[in-house]
Amino acid sequence: SQKIEQNSEALNIQEGKTATLTCNYTNYSPAYLQWYRQDPGRGPVFLLLIRENEKEKRKERLKVTFDTTLKQSLFHITASQPADSATYLCALGTNFGNEKLTFGTGTRLTIIP
Amino acid sequence: ETGVTQSPTHLIKTRGQQVTLRCSSQSGHNTVSWYQQALGQGPQFIFQYYREEENGRGNFPPRFSGLQFPNYSSELNVNALELDDSALYLCASSHMAGEQETQYFGPGTRLLVL
């Protein structure tokens, strides 16, 4: 059966360090993968998209990698700050033009000052 | 802010009742998707509407239905509410034109079924 797993429910990282979150999937052939940030009581906010034929994408302090052989995406936040504390969700899309997204359960990241 | 609004923010219903949740998309967005997010879980796709027609449905029973209107607003209706329907309901708007990269989520409606 299809499954998306994010490495852990919760992750605590010291301020200034790099936070690395993992998203693994099975029985999917995604066309793209997205990462979202969700704060308590709010809807997810889009951060980055990476296509199946891309290895890496960067945006400011964020970096996403995508390995379709390992069926894994890594999401990095460098120079982490307490304001980065949130739940981070990965989501797979299998068709461009049909935006049905399948989400992982999320990782709750806490940056400790 | 994403420009997507939802109402109401919170709602309490009893089992067996019916509920209508509303979403106002970003202007110009012709696609709206609805998701259910249980506590501690990721959002689950309910269905999508494109130009007022259903354009894909997740693994939800027919008592979950929707409407999309020409003025960029939409509704999610749930009949015969069950306790397990308690969740955060999210709508997400986007503009389907070939490759679509971003969905814009609203803040959600938190539904509690007693």
Plain-language structure description:
The complex is a heterodimer of chains A (113) and B (114). In chain A, strands 2, 4, 5, 9, 10 and 11 form a six-stranded mixed beta sheet that branches. Chain A has strands at residues 3-6, 10-14, 19-26, 32-38, 45-51, 56-59, 62-67, 72-77, 86-95, 98-103, 107-112. In chain A, 0% of the residues lie in helices and 61% in strands. In chain A, a hairpin with a 4-residue loop joins strand 7 (62-67) and strand 8 (72-77). The relative contact order of chain A is 0.33. Chain B is an all-beta fold and 114 residues long. In chain B, strands 2, 4, 5, 6, 9, 10 and 11 form a seven-stranded mixed beta sheet that branches. The model of chain B has no long low-confidence stretch (mean pLDDT 91). The interface between A and B is medium-sized, with 24 and 31 residues.
Measured by DSSP, the beta-strand proportion of chain A falls in: over 45%
Encode the helix/strand succession of chain B as letters.
EEEEEEEEEEE
Helical segment count of chain B: 0
User: How many β-strand stretches of chain A?
Assistant: 11
Oligomer state equals heterodimer
> How would you classify the helix and strand content of chain B by structural class?
mainly beta
Shape of chain A, please?
globular
- Spell out the helices and strands of chain A N to C: EEEEEEEEEEE
Helix amount of chain A:
under 10%
The value of Rg of chain B in angstroms is: 13 Å
Number of strands of chain B: 11
Apparent shape of chain B: globular
Radius of gyration of chain A: 13 Å
First-last Cα distance of chain B: 32 Å
State mean pLDDT of chain A (0 to 100 scale): 92
* End-to-end distance of chain A: 40 Å
Question: Helix coverage percent of residues of chain B?
Answer: under 10%
Q: pLDDT under 50 segments of chain B (min length 5)? A: none
Query: What fraction strand of chain B?
Result: over 45%
Number of helices of chain A: 0
